[in-house]
User: Fold these one by one.
Assistant:
Number 1:
Amino acid sequence: MHVFDFNEQLHDLELRGLKRHRSVLEGPQSTHITIDNHEYLSFCSNDYLGLANDPELVEAVCEGAKQYGVGAGASHLVNGHNIAHHELEETLAQFTGFPNALLFSTGYMANIGVVTALVGRSDAIFADKLNHASLNDAAILSRAQLIRYPHLDLAVLEHRLANSRAKRKLIITDAVFSMDGDIAPVEALTYLSEKYRAMLVLDDAHGFGVLGSKGRGLLFATEIAKQHSSNIIYMATLGKAAGVFGAFVAASNEVIETLIQSARSYIYTTATPPLLSHALKKSLKLIAQGDWRRKKLMRHIQLLKEKLQTLPWPLLPSSTPIQPVIVGDVREVVRVSQALKARDILVPAIRPPTVPTGTTRLRISLSAGHQEADILRLAEELHKLAEAG
């Protein structure tokens, strides 16, 4: 094969049922979307609170554009750091209870920036085996020793922490695991980080806005929120439940200043448009006032779990909007996903390498924007497809 000939590689993906295809969305993100002039009921997005097309956020974006223009025009450390960015960082720090916060363009860039800035060759990273790809890539780029532990197995984690002689130790974990929907034991992880003098990076991309008091994230669903450990470095995204775009890291003043000086994915990129930060200040208000959205979402989760109990495909134990149905076989999960699409329902088929071989699944994402009738319709169609075999 010629060094630049990728056709064989692409053909192999196609044969194994692993080739991905993009859909082109025509219009705003919602629970009912249009693709190729056809309307679908969607269970695909991470717009957990239904804010991605909220009229108040649309209006706030327009206000921000009029006030700040469209582009930031430079990186934060040149002269792209707008007052809208600065005010949002201050609001995020206050909202999450940390001394300081720093904006990043995406969650991927935030994780890369944090991990590579805080540890290096003489250090060690302790990572849950089901962590998001961005945390895995960050660990590799840092050049620190990467020590993985079985999913949520804190006994193994403690043993490996105790035996490490690394200069700096960094535990990295998803808060809500994006493909399983289960939740990291944050209190126990915090205890271990303090006991073994390690830092703890908590990626709450799928918990921020959904979990905890006023949607302030997983830390506010625990006792830790009452007195944040200085060991914790908290990351969350702003394009999922918050409905807009971007990410932030909240931590001690010392950590944030270190990131400003050393995080390459922060330093060497153009700042996000200030209009987005302006809109996100409105988003935080809607999140804080959105208990009714979270209660509706939790009702949807409970209803779906009840209706899918008797499916032959197991539903993973998740109390979050991420509800994975394990089908197992790659071709079968694609068949079911395509059959649902033929019935005007979109549920993505998640395959390796995103999930381990043998655990292919339908990843159902619920939103406060869904109605009860939407949940019942999905459950009914899944039962029909299971019975048809």
Number 2:
Amino acid sequence: MKTGKSGLIQGGILAALGLAALLSLVIPQLLRERKDPQLLSLSVLLRDSDSSGWAIARQGMEQAADELGAELRFLTLAEAGDSGEQEAVLLREIDGGAAALVVVPADPGALSAALEQWRLICPAVTLESPMEGAAGTVAPDNALLGRQLAQALLEDWDEGEVLLLDTAGSCTGISGRLEAAEAVLTEAGLPVRRAGELPEGARWVMAFESAATLRTAERREAEGRDFALYGVGAATAVTAQLERGNIAAMAAWSDYAAGYLAVRRAVGAARGEEGTATALPFSVLRKEDIYAPENQKLLFPVMSSSGR
């Protein structure tokens, strides 16, 4: 009798110990899952083959992803501006389970058509150019930017033709800047010409995307040419060219803010939240404006956000 009762007690103790061991494994796991819900998977695709010009925007994206519970997959194209490849890559990402997309569209019209049937499953947020059906767009007011950059040139112009570098392809955001600048200059009576490349003898040059601005400034310096360049961008390399006098004036906005806001909107869209276009504030700066206190966060976001 005693043996039977002792066996029951021992069995109860072992069962209790087993349950305690099981709970010690399961409860922490449940708490972790409650504390850290499953991360949203976001795919980020540029229209470039080299992502170096988007390094600061990427920092903003990563900050937003860390705060909002998302993981980012960064992708580039084998050939810059290849809209067909961009469509194929994004469709592959959707098939692979991406919850939302952040994209700099090479051809917004073609990309909108390609993604139309997937909008409810995988919303897309665009940078630089608006796109029909997008869950949001983060970009400066491109037409206003073009007009204000043209006004900066008008302040300096004395005579001669103005060359507009037409490097946009099907990118509507960039072409919108060019068209607005062209309208202002034409109305003011200046001779204006579009060209895909920088010709010899140009005196006044306008570029409407960061990469084209940087290339043109570097050519001015390397070849010792004497033309006035008006461009865009806030990347460190572009700011350095402004400081060295190879850019007369440039329109700049916070790439860090652009990346942050794009991911925040994409996460919201993936979670069913409504959103709209976000117009990024920008400033037209000259060399003497670089170190003004109000421009520090714009041109040096890593330093300025370090205490964030």
Number 3:
Amino acid sequence: MLMDALVKPSAAPGLALERVEKPVPGPRDVLIRILKTAICGTDLHIYNWDAWSQEHIKPPLVIGHEFVGRIEEIGSEVKHFRLGQTVSGEGHIICGQCRNCRAGRGQWCNDHYSVGVSRPGAFAEYLVIPASNCIPIADNIDIEVVSFFDALGNAVHTALSFDAAGEDVLITGAGPIGMMAAAIVRHVGARHVVITDLSDYRLDLAKKLGATRTVNVTREDLAEVARGLKMKEGFDIGLEMSGAVSALEQMLAAMRNGGEIALLGLFARKPELDMSQIILKGLTLRGIYGRRMYETWYKMASMVQSGLDLRPLITHRFKYQDFEQAFSVMNTGNSGKIILEWSEKA
């Protein structure tokens, strides 16, 4: 049986809408009928066929890893799930045997596969994943928001790395994950939430998500902004989302002594850091990868249920057949999360 899917057909820019074989679940898998997917920055890299994609992607490949759907078929050995149940899924398929996996730190598994990157993805009418990766979704959570829970998980993992309650937080990079991080730290009680970027469009959107002050660094000086907010010593917590060396340098200079920084953005250029600044300030730097499996999934569901409103982040919706238009919009940078609709019935 065939299904529609968005495929990276060859080592060149672009995607193709193709008819491919519908996946068949194994005994420990579930088959998910996809309802909605969200386009991630990784998908855009693959679409544009940049240097990262050329190194990591092996066409032909069905891409996509942010999704929500309903279970249509259950493997013979699967328990605790039911047909028709609304689910999302953790996109890292881990080995389960290495030291980190066995210690409950699967996000650091060295031998993992990634949905839509190194195994068939979710930009299709159906997806098969191991039942152990399947995440049940409560009925009182908006499924459009669930469609980008994978990305939200990155934001939650980063934003909750340090205790932000009552603290002043600096976020560099107002992409969707940076904007979600602003919403999260406000939700948990941060005082000032300052976010920097080069795009006025994204900074304006960040205000709707909870940023208390936005800074376009092409026009404003971050140190002046901090002084204007009556900060005596600098920011308590930094969340680096941009992958820009200049942004990291600004963050290091803006932190108070003893400040804490979580690093999520991947740098296209290797940073040349002033280590004396890190050492003499006593800064803590923590690298973040993916989501904590599976604690982050519980955290983000609970926050959405308790009032974390991420719906303003959704700026565009397209039918999956109009994917070219969706990726064109995303390439402009003037968007939040873009949803692809895969089913007429939600």
